Amino acid sequence: MNFPENLKYTKEHEWIRVEGNKAWIGVTDFAQSELGDIVFVEIQPHSGLLNQGAIFGTVEAVKTVSDLYMPVAGTIVEVNAALDGSPESVNQDPYGAGWMICVEMSDTAQLNDLMDAAVYSAMVGA
Known about the structure:
The protein is an alpha+beta fold and 126 residues long. The chain contains 4 helices and 8 strands; from the N terminus they run βββαββββααβα.
């Protein structure tokens, strides 16, 4: 399992990469391996602020559908449109081409609620 040190992680298996007040969000290597072959990613249309923990979409695999949760409060400013045609990118490159949304964070202090790579790795037993 791969858990990059420069990311933060949630107990729901999302990762977040912060650059200034923007953050890119996706699902972890552990999550994609547990889900299996991902066949569809749906990001629900949102026009305003989403609270930390709010559902922003779903990821559908051959054997299950799983909700996606906001690691921090923010407004979605970009959706990875490439996933429409190639959702398997989440399996192949979860921390790169498989990112799902970019948000403008409203409360960067919420990053303190998230796990670093070592804590997340211990939580999933990797």
